[in-house]
Amino acid sequence: MQHTDMLPRDSAVRLIDQDGQVVADEHYAMPDAQTLLRAYRGLVEGRRINDQAGALVRQGRLAVYPSSHGQEACQVGAALALGDADWLFPTYRDSVAVIGRGVSPADALVLLKGDWHSGYDVKEHRVAPQATPLATQLLHAVGFAYAAKKRGEDTVVLALCGDGATSEGDFHEAMNFAAVFHVPVVFLVQNNEYAISVPLSRQTAAPSLAHKAIGYGMPGQRVDGNDVAAVLAVLGEAVDRARSGGGPSLVEAHTYRMQAHTNADDDTRYREREEVRAWIERDPLTRLRAHLTASGVLDESVEQEYAAGAEDIATAMRAALNTDAELDPEDLFRFVTETRSPQREEQWRMLRDEIARTPAESMGGHR
Ligand SMILES: Cc1ncc(C[n+]2csc(CCOP(=O)(O)OP(=O)(O)O)c2C)c(N)n1
Ligand SMILES: [Mg+2]
Question: What is the pLDDT of residues 63-94, one digit of tens each?
Fold first, then answer.
């Protein structure tokens, strides 16, 4: 590959504009109508999942929820860009992408409820646990993809991270290793303009995050992260490249976190409401709805069917999370390590004694 081909475009790739109009592109093709409809359904369900999870936090049923409200085009694009045998390495904000890969919402949210380490079977769904320490999953993803390559498998790995995570040393190490060893991995950076309160301008002086790719020797591309058609086209090309032995790519999707970082954050302290309102105008859902309605693919009955499906998911989430888990405090000692030091055994005995001394009614039904 010519080194100039590694540089991203001057502006983000876009196939559908904010009014739903098609933007002609000489390189990236518009996904077919069926794919766009599937993506639209994913956006409708993703929005409902985000907002239901937010409500469950307010009801005390989830400990915390980092919402991807506004970033659903990236979430759905990531889930749909992969083949069945491929792997996704997500972050805490990527619950909708995890669910898009087939994990049930109830299982995906167990971690954020605080019940258990990861509520889904990573091998069954080929989705790594959602990582909270920034950028650590990128190294796991690269190592995993390197192993797949060594075994002669044609697995592609899609690794997600945020704009802030690109400042971590792990990001650099993952990018460098992936490029040097020509690993079948695609990095998708969701640039939502903030790392909690820190804006992108404090994160990098590069022309864009996608420009970092050439420094490692891999192609970079920037895409409008609120245009699911463009996200699918750009990720699709990068996935194909990885699968056919062309090595890694870096995709920067420019989007926006429309809500606070999590329920524990107050975003009015660091950004103007005017800025948030401007991004609400660029909602990924309304854009695709306008496009599909104008092209006659989406009508009222399909719209109602998708809304009803999303409502069923929300109902199932409420049912699952409104049920109290039966937890045994001793599981901490049973499952965290296979063997235990004498000190750990002593701590376990202390816990057991404490439980024995605690009146049954204050154990919340766990004894
Ligand atoms: C190694 C590490 N340092 C700091 C944190 C605390 N932290 C959690 S989220 C976050 C901001 C990350 O921003 P970004 O990568 O842009 O992702 P976003 O939350 O915007 O999706 C920080 C600093 C962490 N989780 N891990
Ligand atoms: Mg961010």
Answer: 999 999 999 999 999 999 999 999 999 999 99
CATH architecture for residues 3-321: 3-Layer(aba) Sandwich (3.40)
The Cα 213–Cα 27 span in angstroms is 20
| Mean pLDDT taken over the chain | 95
The fraction of the chain above a pLDDT of 70, given in percent, is 98
Q: How far is the CA of 195 from the centre of ligand 2 (A)?
A: 4
Residue 8 has pLDDT above 60, yes or no: yes
pLDDT confidence of 365, banded at 50, 70, 90?
Answer: low
What kind and span of H or E run contains 319? helix 300-321
Counting ligands in written order, which one lies closest to the CA of residue 161? 1
The residue assigned the tokens 């992969």 is 82
Pocket of ligand 1 (CB under 6 A): 93, 132-134, 162-165, 192, 194-196, 257, 261
pTM: 0.94
Largest CA distance in the chain: 73
Q: Which amino acid residue places its CA nearest to atom 26 of ligand 1?
A: 133
190/181 Cα distance (integer angstroms): 24
